[in-house]
Amino acid sequence: MHLTKIERAMLVGAEGPAVQKAMQIVVALAEIYEAPSLVAVASAQIAGVSYKNLGDAGLEFLQEWAGQGARVRVPAFLNPAGMDLERWMEMGVSPEFAGQQQRVIEAFAAMGVSLTCTCTPYLVGYAPEAGEHLAWSESSAVSFANSILGARSNREGGPSALAAAVTGRTAAYGLHLLENRRATHLVEVHCRPRSETDFGALGYLVGSRVGDGIPYFRFQTPSALPSPSKREHWMALGAAMAASGAVALYHVEDVTPEAQSALLPARSYPVVEIDSLDPAYAALDSPLQELDFVSLGCPHSTLADVERVANLLEGKQVKATLWVTTSRQVRWIAEQRGWVAKIEAAGGKVFADTCLVVAPMEEMGFQSMATNSAKAAFYALAHSGLQRRLGTMEECIEAAIHGRWRGTV
Ligand code: F3S
Asked: Of 206, 123, 204, nearest to 373 (Cα)?
């Protein structure tokens, strides 16, 4: 593997033990994946922030690295943490958990990482340019950056993304190389997804069929396609495919930036036919009637999502606990526009910095939930022990108001 003079110096410790440790991680990955060289990254998005996932061992690892003097040298920002950093008490998070979570955040802050705590950094000022190399780690963010924005990132682990931030480099393999960004499967969609929930259901089906492949979508009813600006649909599609499979890049005919060069003319591709989304709903929805928790915002809600929730709740009161999870920046703008006040007047909560998958839900006593996110439904049972219903945002809001599932709205 070729290393530049500067990279070799980092590896032998010329910039101190913290940078040396980071370069060792980057080089070890490069060796595992037989990368010919390293590549400079424009930014790093670091997952593995929740104390629920890190535990004490992860916290000590971060504190030690920060104590050795690790500092990021490219813009680096955090994935959601296990709690709203300011309103954790309202979530029902214990002081013990909150204390440890705060220490995790302090360790990242000491290394110069921006405390964005969101899986949608591209909505809050960290949208990469097409062709830029990144070291991002949250799967839905990686999918959006690669597929919709045309940037280039493998799905990094938390430590490897941090190592990339500290060295400014990652291993040049996988999706950093143009030849690895071509489609591996053709997906013919014969039905008509209409909502973000349907796009998530579609993503669930395709991810479970293609695994870590690169699907090329051809929608048979193109008039049903959302415009490229309907980003909530693409966010839901990518998030679900990354959850049920390990899809980090997809192409959509006539929509995504690399679609034109994604199919090789002479090659025949395995074809995935999607005639109906029913199998996804059969797997992710259930006949549950009573609900005590409703979660919207996986991936983190856009401003348009928060506005929709505010409008749907106008003049209503919720019976079930309702969380809308988003980034701090989106919540701030939504506060200025009065949407957070409307949601909270109805009894809902708009939490920043966290989501139901990384928060310590098992401490909070919920039994059953509704969500409009196929990814959240996929993980709810495994990560949070919650039985779940999957439906549109309108159905979820109705469920929050009545504490019961009422179905099609
Ligand atoms: Fe984001 Fe949490 Fe969903 S990190 S994609 S809101 S599981």
From this structure: 204
Round to whole Å and give the CA distance between 327 and 85: 11
Which of 227, 210, 226, 230 is CA-nearest to residue 273?
Answer: 210
- Amino acid in the structure at residue 22: A
Question: Along the chain (409 residues), what's the average pLDDT of each consecutive run of 10 residues?
Answer: 97 98 98 98 98 97 98 98 98 97 98 98 96 98 98 97 98 98 97 94 98 95 60 96 98 94 94 97 93 97 97 97 98 98 98 96 90 95 81 97 85
Give the closest residue (by CA) to ligand 1 atom 5: 299
Ligand 1 atom nearest 357 alpha carbon? 7
Global pTM value: 0.96
CB atoms within 10 A of CB 352: 25
Q: How far is CA 143 from CA 205, 240, 249, in A?
A: 16, 10, 5
Nearest CA to ligand 1 atom 1: 299
320 lines ligand 1 (CB under 6 A): no
**So what's the pLDDT on residue 220?**
84
357 lines ligand 1 (CB under 6 A): yes
Residue nearest to atom 3 of ligand 1 (CA): 298
Separation CA 210–CA 191 (nearest Å): 19
**Atom number of ligand 1 nearest to Cα 80:** 4
Is the CB of 209 within 6 Å of ligand 1? no
